[in-house]
Amino acid sequence: MQAENRGKMNVNKERFETYSQNASNGWRHLYNNEAGSDVIFLVGDPECWRFPAHVDVLRQYPVFDAMIREPWSKKGTPIHLPNDDPRAFDNVLRFMYKNTVELKSVATALETLALADKYMCVELVHECIVYLTRNLTVGTVLPVYHAARLYGGQTEQRHGQPAAPPPPRVPDVARATAPPLQDLMPVAVDDAQTEAFASMVKHYDTLLEYCGAFVDRNADRVMADESVDEMDGAELAELFRRDGLAVSNELVLFTALERWCTHKCRQQHLELTVRNRRTVLDDAMLLSVRYLQMTANEFLSGPMPSGLLDAQETSVLMKQILNRKQPRWTCQRLTEDVLDYMARPRNKHHHAGGGALSYVIKRRSSSFRGGGDQHGGAGAGCSSPSSEFDSPGSRASGKKSKKNGGKKNKKRCVDGCFCGHLIYFLDVCFG
């Protein structure tokens, strides 16, 4: 058995060496060349493109090798691929013949990646991922994230590893669904194919990690983009639960969640009612927002009037927001573990609110400069303690600060009373 496996590895190694040598020498001029063509592909529907190809080139790839065998094709009969994108298929053939690819947009790169995954062109998968990582934008990062998550799961399934069922696909990349390899080629997977699967999974994991980091750094702008509406619920919940998601506040995520619910209701021809919005929304998505990181005003302006949370959940969350030091109330869905997650702050290494922070620093630095020498010497911005206490102006400002402090204490007392009355009202109404 081991001798047989070593023999297969040697054959595959010889195939690859032959392919590399022929691609650099004789196959380049055969690209888009009718001379010697013994296979014809009709790609696309309703717009169908015709591609001439050569058996010697196609047999270097296991999926194409199986495709040109019986009963999949008969000699002289064109092979029709209605679900493949013609431009992406042209990129696949170009890479097979010339070992180069020309990608001019993220949309074309996604279509090409879909076919490279389908036909197990590992080197082309790598080229597409390199292009995508270099050309990510706020408007394209979520479709790319979706593709990496989807194709990575399909590759694991084809390799025989357990994987979660793939979610519905984004319309822009939905035409290139890869068929299971065992349906197309019912032979044992050899060591070379196992290595190809492992390499593809590694490429997709890298792309997924890169997309996640991009979303973390640009969370506010990404969540405001319309591409959020096309995301699958499980994918959106996965992004919402990222600890490094640098949103300015949790209300940004809840607003995106509301918009997503409205879009799904319209797609399914449902009335825009609270009940229907809750129907299209599962618990994983709804509870992925960290409500306990909101202020009372944010919760009152967003989640509370939306109706997505029921009355008991609204009461539990509002009481916890108003009294964070008190023991937690719980209910059926808001368990201790869920509330612990909602109370955990995000690690905002690249905080989106940097502009506000720089504004505060600028205000503080200008106030220090205002009290010093106009020439800005080494000690210009500071005054001695004795001069500060001896000046009449400082005594007057001290009296003013006491008055302000009294007003602040009074306001804090009023706020505390209001919070107490609100908690009592929530207890009476919702228990």
From TrEMBL:
Which Pfam families does the protein's record reference? Answer: BACK, BTB
Residue spans of biased composition, Low complexity class: 381-394
Q: Which InterPro entries match?
A: BACK, BTB/POZ_dom, SKP1/BTB/POZ_sf
List all Gly residues biased stretches.
369-380
Q: Spell out the residue ranges making up region: Disordered.
A: 367-410
| Spans through the membrane | none
Show the ranges annotated as biased composition (Basic residues): 397-410
The cross-references to SMART domains, in alphabetical order and at most eight, read:
BTB
Q: Which residues form the BTB domain?
A: 37-105
Full protein name: BTB/POZ domain,SKP1/BTB/POZ domain,BTB/Kelch-associated
